[in-house]
Design a protein that fits this description.
416 residues, eight-stranded antiparallel sheet, five-stranded mixed sheet
Length: 416
């Protein structure tokens, strides 16, 4: 196979064999194992630092490491053996999958942790139950059934079996599972997520990268705005607004207002019996608000990538969020505070990578105030939703003007 994309899909499943209580127990154990393992990974890093300081330290650490087994195995194997001793009743595929996931998480955050920029990750109840997929089961993991596909991720010994439920299948999950079943896609380590009485399969798989041939030198820029969530401009001359304030910010603020009203009503709620039930409505509102933002960001990022593909762009330039955070403009801060633009950037980046499109962050300073015609920069140029230059009189929609300036600054930097 050539270059592959790694993707994850959330598919609802039903428990056809086994007890839900067993999965609850394993989910709780995963939280405990994760917090123990991540702390020990950090401790082993510190042991290595001590080892490099003095000859005496090297001798001491060598003795300790030999006793612990770290000299004769990799860190992952060492952690797996440690967890196997303390949690021997948990299926080995869960321990193996968890060890691999934690190692990846720690390696990603290690640099920030050692610099003091981030704390060690803390895992809470309800975390997914990971399981590893051995190579011999990758093509036989799913078995066809009358209603979909059945699978037994933890081995026949534990007697837990699931069956897929695709429903309306707007995400085309049935076709993905079918491709895995036929060996067209490669199954990777996945996990089971419990949400109340519902069970979901977080299915991770590799699929061939979609063929896309960009035109050399074609770039699209994206400006984050108050009235338009994303304004796109292409070096080919094409431009379009994506999304609008009414369907995004206003709905988010309405949800926040409802949540604050409910919080105020619950302020006098006393502890004891019934408190958990009274707070359920608040938790549902929080979850709905988060899901709304995530869904809208997925929809926006899809349209942004579609625009880039239509223009055959090889690069997408997105606005630097740190620049907005430092901006003295209170409106910019207000928008950033009430919408997850960082998540939107993450979605754009991973979706663009599927087609080999490069995403870069462009430094932006006063781009909305700068006239694209004469280059004059002045806050007086901004009038409501328009940029009207006080020098040359050039007029353009504010977000369109800003996106054009990002493109022009990028093209100027190439000539230097």
């Amino acid at each position: 196979m050539g270059k592959m994309n790694v993707s994850t899909r959330k598919i609802e499943v039903i428990l056809t064999s086994g007890e839900l209580e067993t999965l609850d127990k394993w989910s709780y154990a995963c939280r405990r194992m994760s917090n123990i393992a991540i702390s020990r990974m950090f401790a082993l890093e510190k042991v290595d630092e001590w080892q490099s300081l003095t000859d005496k330290g090297k001798k001491t650490v060598k003795k300790l490491s030999k006793e612990a087994g770290t000299m004769t195995s990799t860190r992952m194997n060492f952690m797996y053996r440690e967890l196997s001793v303390e949690f021997s009743d948990i299926p080995s595929c869960i321990r193996a999958g968890l060890t691999r996931t934690l190692n990846q998480t720690y390696q990603q955050k290690k640099s920030e942790i050692h610099k003091g920029l981030s704390a060690l990750p803390t895992f809470r109840n309800g975390m997914p139950i990971p399981f590893n997929i051995s190579s011999k089961y990758k093509t036989s993991f799913f078995q066809k059934s009358e209603n979909g596909y059945t699978f037994n991720p933890f081995g026949k010994k534990f007697g837990i079996e699931f069956e897929t439920r695709f429903g309306k299948d707007r995400s085309n999950n049935r076709a993905i599972v079918q491709n895995i079943y036929e060996g067209k896609y490669e199954l990777c380590d996945s996990s089971i997520q419990l949400s109340g009485k519902k069970v979901f399969l977080l299915l991770t798989f590799k699929s061939p990268k979609e063929r896309f041939k960009p035109k050399k030198g074609v770039v699209v820029t994206m400006n984050l705005g108050m009235n338009v969530p994303a304004y796109m401009v292409s070096s080919t001359g094409d431009h379009t607004p994506i999304g609008n304030k009414n369907t995004l910010l206003k709905q988010r603020l309405a949800m926040q207002s409802a949540r604050k009203r409910l919080q105020k009503e619950l302020a006098d709620t006393k502890g004891g019996r019934g408190r958990k039930k009274k707070l359920q409505a608040l938790n549902r509102l929080r979850k709905s608000e988060r899901n709304f933002v995530k869904t809208k960001n997925h929809q926006l990022s899809y349209k942004i990538i579609k625009f880039a593909l239509e223009n055959k762009a090889e690069k997408i330039l997105i606005e630097d969020l740190q620049g907005i955070a430092r901006d003295e403009n209170e409106i910019s801060k207000y928008v950033l505070r009430n919408w997850s633009y960082f998540e939107l950037q993450q979605f754009i980046t991973y979706k663009a990578a599927k087609f080999g499109i490069v995403v870069e962050v462009a430094e932006t300073h006063y781009i909305s105030q700068k006239c694209t015609n004469c280059g004059h920069t002045d806050k007086e140029n901004l009038q409501d939703d328009q940029m009207k230059c006080v020098v040359c009189g050039h007029k353009l929609q504010k977000d369109h003007n800003a996106a054009l300036n990002v493109l022009k600054e990028y093209q100027s930097s190439l000539k230097v």
